[in-house]
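Case study 2.
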Amino acid sequence: MTIVEGPWGGPINLEDVEQAIRQSHPKLITLVHSETSTGALYDPIEISRISRQYGALFMVDAISSVGNMRFEMDAIDCDLAVAASNKGVGSLHGLAMVGVGPRALQAMNARQTPCSSWSLDLQRWNDMYFSKSSGRRSATPPPTHLVFALQEACRLLLEEGLEAHWSRCHRFAEATRQAVQAAGLKIFPNPSLLGDCVTAICVPDQLQGPAILRSMEANGVLIAGTVARPSPITGKVLRISHQGIQASAEMLLPTLAALECSLRTFDYRVEYGTMAAAFERSLEREAGGWLDSAKEESV
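Prediction:
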């Protein structure tokens, strides 16, 4: 396996990617579309083009982009895409969804060595689910409650409309960013890479991220820190989610208020209501304002 590393929350160096591919001749190239650890959104188009140029399959981790943002597998010429039932889709945690394109299916059909996994063998799932002669539809006993929950979540997405849902997630993501910046906090990822899944915030130099998290939890609000494994941003970044139902004033205003309160606890200078005021101003710049949006979500 060849890993092309870049700065956390920074842009991908396409020349480094192409050089690594030219040297290692991989069969499969993978990319995370929406990176939840940093709040960065990466454009898959160029990586897809390079993959085609060197005859490799292209796979995208779209776990936190599907539902939150536009992701069109065919449009970006993606061979495999992985999503999940929670996060942007808004269902219960526990299901993985895999999109398989024709080139990936062809590669599976040409495989000489049997897959060593039973439940993770996509060829077996394809044969069992779509074959009329198969005696069962799934390779494993299905978690029926999760399937019905996913069905309901998809119904709600379609009822709202995908374009309207993406727009709502973007409005509340932008309002959250405006709110934290109004308090003098810095957004972590490169400004050109801002996604609508989470807002990643740099912890001020004089403060400790874990202490802020504990203070917020004491006020009844949970937000995320950084990834568990050691990294250059461990303890230095806080993350506020605005996915699915969380993209709402009902969820985000108390979160911003708790963050503001915790910052003041540690002598960080911010006026009362700064974040809430900036949040509301951002939404009011959109047609209808945040009050109308909140009414629509409660219907």
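Residues 14-157 form a domain with the Aspartate Aminotransferase; domain 2 fold (CATH 3.40.640.10).
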